[in-house]
Every structure is written in C-alpha cells, then in structure tokens.
Protein 1
Amino acid sequence: MVGARLRVLTAVGARPQFIKAAPLHAAFVRRGIEDIIVHSGQHYDHGMSQVFFDELGLPEPHLNLGVGAGSHGAQTGRMLAGYETAIERYAPDVVVVHGDTNSTLAAALAAVKLGIKVAHNEAGLRSFDRSMPEEHNRVLTDHCADVLFCPNELAAAQLRREGVDRPAHVVGDIMYDAALHFAARAASTSTVLARLQLSPGAYALATLHRAGNVDQPERLGALLRALRAAPFPLVLPAHPRLQARLREQGLEVRAPLQLIEPVGYLDMMQLTRNARLIITDSGGLQKEAYFHAVPCLTLRAETEWTQTVETGWNCLVDADEARIQAGMREPQRPAERPAIFGDGHAAEKIADLLLGA
C-alpha cells in the first residue's frame, strides 16, 4: 500500500472503541493516511458517544449507521448491512476494527464478504467464557482478519495455538497510549471530584453493565448488596442497561452507593486515577485501573486481561458477596507494577505496519 494514498475505514460503536480510535486517528493523520470513521450507533446516548468525540479530538464520523439498541442478532444484522453499504461507498483499502463488540464483528464480516482486508486491533485476547457474546466476537473476528495487532505476547501465542497463520504483531495496548496522552488534560480540565464532593483516595469507583451481571435479578441483587457494604463512598456511573434493570426490578440504590449518569473520558480518567479502589465488570476499566496503579476487583469469574491478575493488581471476585466485601476492606496493592501494556506507542506501530502491509 502507498502511504499517502492509503484509505482506512475505522469501525467504531462503543465507548472503548472511541478511546482506541483517537490515538490511532492522530497517527494516521501524521502519516497522510485517510481515515474514514463509520459509527455503528451501538452507543448513541450523548454520555456514551458524542462526549468522547468532543473530548478526544476525533472528527465527526463520516457516517453514523444509527443502529441503536436491540437483541444481539438483530443489532449485529443491521450493523452488517450498514457496514456493507459504507464499505461499498467509501472503497477503503483496509477496514480497522477494535476490540470485541457487535460493531467489531459486523464490520469485519462485511469487509470479508466484500473482499476488503481486515485489521483487528486487540487481537488474541481470550476469557475462555463462551457464555459471553464478546468472546465469540473476539474469536470470529480474529479468524477472519488479515492483519492482527496484539497487546502482548500472550495474545499472539494464543493466535498461534488456534492455528491463525496471518501476521500477528505485538504492538502494545492502544488504550495505554490514550491514558498517557490525555492524563495532563484530564488533570487540568476535569472538575468531577469537586462536583461530586469527593476527596482523592477516599472513595471507590464502580461500573456494572455486562448482561451476565445486570440481566440476572439474583446476581444483580447480590452485587448491589455487596456494594452497599462498602466502608467508603462508592461512585457508580450507571450504564443505560443498568438503569433500565434497576427500574424494572425495583432495586434500591442507597448510600454509600452514589449513582450518577455516565461521564466522559476525561472525567472518568480523573475518577479512576484518584480512586482507592476500582470495582468493575468492564474489560477496559480493568486496564485503566492498572495504568493508574489503582487496585481492582473484577465482578467476573474470568478476565481476558489475565496479566493484571497475575501481577496482583486485579482480583476476580465474581458475584461473591463475601469476597467483594473482603476485597473492599483490604485492597491489594503490590510493590511492583510491571510494564505489561507496552510503551505507549501502539498507535504509531499500527499505522506504520498498515503502511507496509
């Protein structure tokens, strides 16, 4: 591919993908690569979508498919049709997909069926929990992609074990690029701690959104009981799915749990880096906790980010009330924090590799 004439279509649709797309878009611009951003509309609330474009310097999408919510099959099907139309319209040399959402899989499948190369950023990750839709999205995308960008050697080794014979490049984690790039801006512009009357190191930050947690009444009830036992204030930016389930099930949210609307990337970074503890079922927030040296309790039985557990900074507590409460009382804070997410230059490496593909 010729650098100045390379045209990339970047597929995004959910909060983590906006964060990953920002440093990569900047790297593309510096190299003269044309970046066509197509938003599936998977996340469509302002607090889950537009605020990230505003804060991260991403240009407005060339096209928003406006898919919105729906069942996995219906949503993915609408995305597949929409991305097919977008690829035919813009005729990219390669389609770049990030992570493991329905948007990821739909864009990859649309490209494959049209004979367009697919590059998958965050390839090779596995939780080995086949009940998670994200696990299937990861595996299927990896096996149809032409170029794979892995955050670490473990992910590349997993692809080899599965017989994936396309190029798998270990580039580091692009969310770490974003964390390094935007840290100073978050510190200087975010007022979220003052607005919420929080003191650094005196509160915990929680997120809860996975269907396996919030769509099961007994499990969601157990998680809320555990969180209400926190010995410190606990802030919970509420994903729209969680808000809907709380209303449907008539579940009570009370102190020390403080429910707030979703916040932008810069506010979320400030909440993360100043927390004494992170409690989450999000893959991205597990990493961000590690970036900022904050202990993490993961409300799942497994994780695709196994190294965060192996280093002692992340503890898998599932929905076990006793383990969650014990973890809140005595968060782990190991003496060492190895550099497991690369050197902060993943975006540049991906752009250069695409130019040479």
Protein 2
Amino acid sequence: MDSFAVTASDRIIFHHTHTEINKKSRYIVNAGSVGQPRDGIPDAAYVLFRGNKVEIRRVSYDIVLTQKKMREARLPETLIE
C-alpha cells in the first residue's frame, strides 16, 4: 500500500509518496509489503526516514522466480498468484 496518514486535530490526511514530519502531528506509516499488492503495483516497498522527511520507495524484484520458489516450498497457490 503506497500511502501513509498524518493525524492532526482529529483529521486524517493521506500522503502517497512523501511528506515532512511535523512534531505536533502523529504518524502511522505503512509501506505495504512484498507480494499481494492492494494498489496493483507489484514492487516491494520500504520507508526511508531522513531528518524530518519520510518517503515511501519501491524496488522491483523477480516475481516469476519468487513464484517458482514458493511453488517449490509448496505454499498455497492462492498466495503465489
């Protein structure tokens, strides 16, 4: 999931790639995961914190090879697809 929320004064504001951190706000950061993308982007996601900035980044990976290894490990086909 390529978004995160900033909560201030009972408001939720979604940011999809980056924002600056405000010390008066509370943050929930969710970069998502590898596999089963809810936003249709199959790349792995991670969060980068630098100073007062937070950014969600993406990295591509070999999905076909990953699926092959999952089949070899006998994981459920629903997870592989």
Protein 3
Amino acid sequence: MQEDFLHYIWQYQKITSLLLKTVLGNKLQVVAVGELNLNSGPDFYNSRIVIGNQEWVGTVEIHLKASDWFVHGHQNDNAYNNVILHVVWENDVTVFDANQNALETLVLKDVVDQKLLFNYKKLLQRKKWINCENEIHTIDEFTLSFWKEKLLVQRLQRKANELQQQLERLENNWEALLYQILTTSFGLKINAPEFLLLAQNISFGVFKKELSNQFNLEVLLFGQSNLLKQTLEDSHYQSMQKEYLYLKQKYQLQDSLVNLQFFRLRPSSFPTIRLSQFSMLYNSQKSLFSKLIASKTTSAIYELFSISASEYWDDHYTFGKKSVKRKKQLSKAFIDLLILNTIIPLKFMYAKSVGKENFEELLQLYKSINAEKNSVLTKFKELKLETASSVDSQSLIELKTAYCDKQKCLRCEIGNKLLYPS
C-alpha cells in the first residue's frame, strides 16, 4: 500500500462510518479535509475538525504506520507543531505533540470500504504496460473527454512553466525565447540538445543583425555547429568557410562544442537541411514572433513556414556530395510538430502573461492537426482508445508520462473511476 492511497481516502472522505472516533475514544467530525500539500510539511493544511466539543483548525499528517512519525523525524520539526490530527492505517505506537500530550489519531483500517480496498489492490497489481490496461476500455466517454481536456491543460501549463524559466534567463525577451525554442525543435529529438546549445552560442542579438542576409545566417549556424572544418573541393563550402572566419571575428564568437548527429536520421532531416531551412525562415519572415502570436489558424502558420532550404541544398544533403535535385521544403508533418510542441505552448504562455484567455483558440489548433503516430499511441489504440486528432494524442501522451509511468492512479480520473465506480 502507498501513502497516496491514504491521502485519497482522506481527501475524498472514502470512509464508511459516520460515527468516527479517535484512538483516545473522542468523537471526531470532519468539517473540512483541508488542501493537499505537495511541498514539504504536513500533508493537508487549513483542515477543520471537531474533536469532542472542540473545533480545531490546523494541519493533518498521514502515515501508513503511526511510528512513521518518528521514522520521518517529525518530532524534531517545528513545522509539525500545528498538527491537529494524525491519520494512519495502523496505530503501532503513541505519538505525542510538542506539549507531550498524546496526539489525536484516526485509524483508517477499520473504516474503509473493503470494495475500495480490493479495487485499489487490483489496480496497482503491475501489468505489462499500464496498471489499468485491462479496464481502461470500460471508462465512459464523458469521463474520458473531461479528463483528456484537463490533461491537455496540464500539459500546456507544464510546458509554459518550463518556458517561463527560460524566458527569465533571457531577461524576458520573447523574440529570443522563440529563437531558442524553435532552434531546439528544428533539431528534432536526436539533435535538440545540440541545437539548443547552438542557439545559446549565437545569441539572438547577434543572429538578428544578419537577418537580411540569408547566406550569413547559414554561415553562422554551420560555423558554430562545427560543420565548416573540413577540406573540400567545393566552392560554396569554401565561401562559407571564408565568411565564417570574418563573422566569428566580427562578433567575437567563442569556439563551439556543438556535435551534431546524422546517424539514424533520414536525409531530409539531416541537421544541414534543418539549419538551412531555419535560416530561410528567419530571413523570409521578419517579426516572426508577432506574426505567430497573431496567427489563429493552422493555415496561417503553414503559410509562415512555407519555406525551403537554400538553393545549394536542392542537390545536396551534406557538403561536397551531390544528390538527386529536389527542393527541401518543410513538410506539413514537421510543421505540425512545431505547432504542437513549440508554438501552442508559446501562445498559451504569452496570452497568460498579458492577461488574456486563449484556450478555445488553441483547442481549435489542436483539433485541426492529425494525431501523432508513435509507440505510445499505438498501444493505447490496442487498448481501444482512439485518437481522432492531436487533442487525443497529446492528452494520452501526457496521461502516460505524467500518470501511468509514475503510477499516479489515485490522481487520475480514470483511476478514480475504477476505484470507486458510481
């Protein structure tokens, strides 16, 4: 049994008896369970209870065993001096408060619905993939839809919190933030950390000074990516090498540790192609941040990102090696990934920063993008959960990573439904 289960019982008062008594024999009435504390200190604060004829307001601490009070060292922590009730599954020792009086204690073991306990044990018997894989298909559509929307908001909020920290490091420069997160996204999963390092090596202040010169933008990106250090009989390559030496001196750029990977990537996703496309994007779309914030539909965003790599890359994937000639455009699938992972979180965060609500607008963006395809979503489909759009796929990815993988069934609407079906 996990302590989270006891938190769940207390928070939702899944208790069978209306006549509660403490270990000391005093009548207990719960007026307000309080608010769950996710930080250090007692588990619930602002709790209100009546013991005997006396009403108390304070904190509630919950343990599997009463002796865990001493195991966790609460007797030496002043933060626990305001505990008005100790809630335990098993009362194996007497706990005393700061005044050496026996702490009022409620034992849950005898006042919990046995069916709830059975469902809990059944749910947490670890299965092959997720705990509820044999039951999740039985959840009604209303519960699923409600929970998916909450998961979507949680995912957005989590990403926004991460972006906020990045924005603060950039001294609240929104354009610099977009530059960094877009660069990272262009690196895809394999090269994302190296692309972020690249964006940090070439500050947006430097990068924007060359926005009118697409060739120079490429030179900066390739040079700081350590892709201009070869000796090649290629006039374009040699021109880039020469220009990079000038720009490196001009902007006092430091030697870079960026180490890009080509292995396990399709040629169309090679970092050479992505860097060229990135430079073309910024060269062709001045005031990109403002344009993205103003774009309310996927078609408007697709238009902004309707770019190709520069001409040299029409018949190259790497320097010095010719290939079949074709334009290297950004694909719709790639732009969709940018919208889901970069643009929507940025728009959500920016709207909050200026005191606006834009979730309905973002929800329409999600609905207009097809569901992603990956192993997680394939498995959910096998469990009879369909994905009609990215609303479904994004929420299910969040469900898997934030709840299923961490076994947070008791904080999950699906887990709650299975524990205590109405």
